[in-house]
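Dig into what follows:

_____
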Amino acid sequence: MNTQKNILLKYIDDNQDQYINIARQIFANPETSNHEYFACKMLSDQLESHGFSITRDVASHPTGFTAVKKSSRSGPRITFLAEYDALEGLGHGCGHNLIGTISTYAAIALSKQLDKFGGELRVYGTPGEEGGENGSAKEDFVTKGYFDDVDIAMEIHPSNENSVTPASLAVDPVDIEFWGRSAHAGLSPELGINALDALILTYNGINALRQHLTTDVKIHGIILNGGSAPNIVPDYARGRFYLRAKTRPTLNKVFEKVEHIVQGAAMATGATCKIARFQNKVDDIVRNEILDDLYRETMSDMGVTWSENVAFSSTDAGNVSHVIPLLHPMLKTTSCGSPLHSMEFRESCIASEALSSIATGAKLLALTAMKLFNQPDLVEEIKLFHKDLI
């Protein structure tokens, strides 16, 4: 194990510059959900050049990919998750230029010794974690069976602090639409059915609902379409809302309550209505304490300090955690103190502190995975523990 560890660390130390360059290039070419052609090609080409078998355009996502490298010996199957999409209008304000790079870096470093400990390494390129067009690809990877024969999945996320896997909220991203009837608002408003009124009733109804929800539930929304002119009764209105809750069962109940509000607003105004997800659902993270403890051990081995109970919002990695054990720790990539999805955090993701943390993240992930490859009995224990959590 010590020899394996030294070889792995040497590869990571000797190759920092090329992976920093990859992160820089992805940062300089931000791409939104399912348009990440540059990042997809850069990461998958890098993996292919190191002997991984690549399949692109997977799970109904043109910028998704799978990279697979197998040992001649049997052993665990471990998958690293790569994210590389940017935020619309902001760029890489969540550090996905770092996430995809670190997963690729760790997998390649491990692959150099795969035959020594046996098993199979994979990297799944999962587009659109931030949502948007055909967003939250991990749900499609789950439903289409890409994790059916995987033992454990892992990735690491940029942050202001180091931590083990944080709790996260489940999310239903929904569009709420109303159809009414247009009329001249000055001459014959009685002939119209006001779709915007229905949407405003819905917005106010959601505000009233908040008083009767548990503290973990968050609902936030915007009006995307409210009419074309003040003197025309709007015959169409659309709002977009995120419904969040601590667990999927709780969120399902919240969705039902909001659906009733929408239906009530339609009845009150005479409009017709629709409420539906505009992209995949996102589930909460199911945290595996045995896996987190192993990661704590790795941080301790490397002299990395960490914080407990670090806050996080939502991620479609949670969907993966509902079917197999997931490691999703946070990596300190900046001391700026700014929150994710801010301009300040975006700028930190190309700063020297973040770029130097790429090697640290690769070491933490790769060393944790190496322990798992060398302890197949521990892998089975983690999987059994996971079954009790679901």
